[in-house]
Amino acid sequence: NNLNASGTRYFQRGDHVTAIKKFEDAVAVNPKDADSYYNLGSVYHHLANKTGDPTHAAQAEAYYNQCLDNDPNHVDCHRGLAVHLTQQGRGHQGFRLIQGFKQRCPDNVDASVELARLHQEAGNSKAAEEHLLDAIAKDTTHPRARVAMGKLHEERGDYGQAIANYHVALSRNGAQPDLHARVAALKGEGTSSTPLLSDAPLTKVVNAPDGNMRY
């Protein structure tokens, strides 16, 4: 836990070399820790987006799959891998990944939210809304489901409903500064920005899985 926390801090500072070393050390301490593999996947995913290097992309995919090998229901990893596959022009595989997640875990609200996100990014807002309604029916104040529903309303220009959904999300989890800022912006009270991280070189190579059946 300490190594993962330390690596996360270095990643947030933009020091990817040290972050990767910390996460690799965490894997060495516990080779079955899914979070360590997820963290490594996240770093290489970020580097793949920044550099366009296919080696970084392969590294990200390999580490994400190692995470799921150790925790098949890791929500953040499903999200990260689905996004990564979509960004690599393999959106159909991203859909299969999340559809399989929802089929295995029909009561998992996050699986419904992730499937809604993929449909929304594909331009199918109706299907996205159906999955979000399904998620909210299972957990009426689920923060991610409510934020996603709020974004749908916002895109439609229904700002009142968007703000209402955002407020429900904040009532459940108030520690969302970006969402507070978004509500303020919709009310004409301000805007927010997101910092960027710098690049870092590759450290070691991990082979991508062969014959993976998740997607």
Task: Provide an overview of this structure.
It is built from 11 helices and no strands. It is an all-alpha fold. Residues 190-203 have low confidence and may be disordered.
Residue-averaged pLDDT, rounded? 89
Q: How many angstroms does the end-to-end distance come to?
A: 30 Å
The 3D shape can be described as globular
- In terms of DSSP E residues, the strand content is under 5%
Rg (C-alpha, Å): 18 Å
Secondary-structure element order, as H and E? HHHHHHHHHHH
The description of the largest β-sheet is: none
Number of distinct helices:
11
Low-confidence stretches: 190-203
How many beta-strand runs? 0
Structural class by helix and strand composition: mainly alpha
Summarize the amount of helix as a percent range.
over 70%
